[in-house]
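All the exercises in this workshop are built on plain-text protein records. Sequence and backbone structure share a record, each on its own labelled line. The question running through the whole workshop is how a given chain folds. The record below serves as our worked example for the rest of this section.
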Amino acid sequence: MTQKLRWGIMGCAQIATGSVMPAIRESETGIIQAVASRGLEKSSAVAKELGVAQAYGSYEELLADPDVDAVYIPLPNHLHREWVIRAAEAGKHVLCEKPIALNSREAAEMVEACRKAGVHLAEAYMYRHHPRIAEVREIIASGEIGDLRSIRGTFTYNDAGDTSNIRFNSAWGGGSLYDVGCYPLSAARLLFGAEPEAATVQAIFSPEHDNVDMMASGLVEFPGGVSLIFDCGMWAYNRQLLEVLGTEGRIELPMPFNARFDDAEFFVYSGGEVRRARATGANPYVCQADNFAAAVFGAAPVVAAEDPVLNMILIETCLASARTRQRLSLKQG
């Protein structure tokens, strides 16, 4: 019988109710033990809709439940640090939505709290768990496209008309770099297998959106002269693309950050030909839940424990570069 991880869901945001909770129910290793909100009425409604046994009207009650092994935290970014640390202190493993914190200092505190408590912490970049990413990494390692030279990543959408959106709250960790820029930034670190050295970013800061970065584009320098060229935005036409360029070819991934089943294919250009790769389709949220549980039960995690800190170092450097309009070197730790 497959060992089961008992989840508590800390908040009823759309990402939780629409994606993560259904995925945990579909997973091989997880069951949802409880859901909590700041009011019992909301959590009870979600529990009834999704068939969850226990609903709580506070996060503290959820953390006190001895039948909850792990918590998923989809709260606004500025609340991540507090509740990750409190969950760790309660002995719960933690899957926290991206970006994990407002800055690398907070992220380091969270990682250390989880290490001290002996619990597993992961940042919820679900795309990294889709089989297509592993297949792309295998192609890169095989040498089919030669030595890596550059990665180009884009992730934009237009939601600027909804000025009440929490993504437009500067103090809460709003802005395009935090919301969608983190995807190509984390992907480049993963695919290059290295940490960046410097970043130069330009952004549109909108006074009508609490002066968050509504659009950003930039260059991230990696060792050996290779680079990520990226753009991200919440005030531009919807699009996603990831291109990996090598000396002998390139890989092009449409919808790199939201692919599931029928849209999981990608294209490999090499030897003067193009190959349509039929990647294994999957729900990345289900893969994320099963990989998280595997790490809790003793398997090697998909990424290292310090990965969230390194992600935040890059994000905060990009934002600082955009605000100062300067090329900035990254501090590593």
Summary: The longest strand covers residues 235-246.
